[in-house]
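Please go through the protein record below and see whether the fold suits the sequence. Record follows.
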Amino acid sequence: MFGFKKWAGRATTVTAITAMLVPGMFAGTLAFAGPANATTTPQSGICNGVANQLAFRGEVQANLLRAASRQNAALIQQLQTERAALVATETSLKGQITDTEAQIAALEAEGLKIDSDIATATATIADLTAKQTQTAAALQTAQGELGALQAARQSVKDEIAPLQEQLTTQVAAFDALQIEANGVQDQITAKKSQIAQEQTALTDLEATASAAASALAAKKAQINQAETELTALEAQGVSAAGALAAKQAEIVQARDELPALEAAATTAASALAAKKAEIVQAQTALTGLEAAATTAANALAAKQAQIDAVNAKIATLTNNVTATENQITAKQSLITQAQADLQSLQSQKATLEASIATWEAVHDNRDGLKKEAADQLAILRPQLAAVNTQITDKSAVISGLQGDLTGLQDQLAALNTQLTPLQLESTTLQAQLAPLQASVTTANSQVTTKQTELADLATQAQALQTSVDTANAAVAAKTAEIAGLEAELPTLQSAVVQATADIATKKGELADLATQAQVLQTSVNAANAAVAAKVAEIAGLNHELDALVTSLSQINAQLTAANTKILGLQTRVDALTVTLDGLDAQITAQDAQIAGFNAQLKVLDAQIVTAQEALNVLQSQKQTNKDMVAAQKLVVLGLQSQLATVQTQISQIDGQIALGGCVA
């Protein structure tokens, strides 16, 4: 807005100055928090104006700041160089402070860990000392318990000795009775063996008698079975003759039915051939209709493609017209704004010229007015020059915008000229589209009608084909039925002959079986007599065995009594032996426990010494860590002091640069 773009070669300086202005700019002025003295360069006349405005108004006009910046460009460049060096120093100091604080944090964390390790070591020493005391007390208790166990062991050994003598006497008496019982048992075993042999012979005799009886029963069953089979064979002969007569009647009936079925199959085949001829004729007509429909659809698609192409061009031109109209509107808005800005600048120019004329009219120095006039003229004349420059720039901008507007209006007229014939062409094509659409609809309707007709014919042909297949199947089935019936006749005739022969054979078998049954009855009677004699012999042997078993039972009763005494003594000895073994195990365990307590005491003594040494080392490390943290904190304080000094210098330079190189 102030026309800087015409001053070639100073855009970089203006940008640099603007970037360092404090964020108090508003309505063309700058507000500052306070003075800064980054340099002691003597103040020039323009810097006096800056200082006076800042002192009396609390702010400085932007055009005066730009004039000061141009006059002090070399000084500002020097200040910016100094500021860059100070910023680098500031960054370095901040990095050193961050690193040192990180080191302090690490040292403090290490100190906390050392404190934790000291607490752990102290607790470990206390725990080891308590364990040492407990182990010593347990050792003393274990030594007392060992003496009591050794005394109890000797008492048990003294009690076992007399019981062992009694047990030896009872075992000797038991062995004598056992020898006597063994002799009786041998006699019983021999008698049982004899009885077993006789029992085996009895079993053989019973098996012989049973086999003879089974053979007799089987033979009687054969006779009954043969009689039953003879009755069945006689019934089969009668049935076979009846089946032969029935089959011959079926063959005569099937031969009578076959000619009618063959005539029905011929009629169905003729109807099917006629229907297939109709289908071929309908398919030929459908092919022609489909070709006509395709031609009509292609013509419709081609016409639609022409319409789509024209419409696409119309859409493109319409979009271009809209975009051009939008550009014209925007350009007109810019012209209106630029003209308003120009009027504002011309108003400012008139105001400045009036102020300059007023101050130029001052010729005496009453009340110091001439000096003030000189100061004001020094401010107002540069402002007037800047406004004149802006007026020139703004006029050039308006001329350029008006030229752009004319070009856009010409472009809009050309687009409208292109759009009109395309819209007419689109209307014409749309009118041509309706007849083509009607042709396509008519052709598709004819194709659909013919397809429906063809589908009906196909359905009818399918029904006729089913009738032909059914009739042919009936003829084939009846022919096969006749062949099957004729094939069964020889089998039925053979069955009648075979049944007659089987009846004669079965009667001869019955006579033979009756003779064999009489012989088997004689064998059964002899076997039953031998079994009765063997049963009586086995009964006598069992009586002798009972007497031996009674004698053995008496001896076993004596053995049981002796064994009871032995078991009682053995139980008492075993119990005392278990007690003695338990005492021996307890004594051994007590010895091992005492040895373990002594070993634990040695280990605990060594652990306490080691833990105390570790605690001493940790306490030394704690003091060293504390000294290092204090030293690093002093380093941070020094770095922070340097950082504050550098930041103050940067702030002073920023203030001076913001005032165009002047010192407030």
Notes: The longest helix spans residues 369-658. The beta strands are 29-31, 59-61. The CA atoms of residues 162 and 644 lie 108 Å apart.
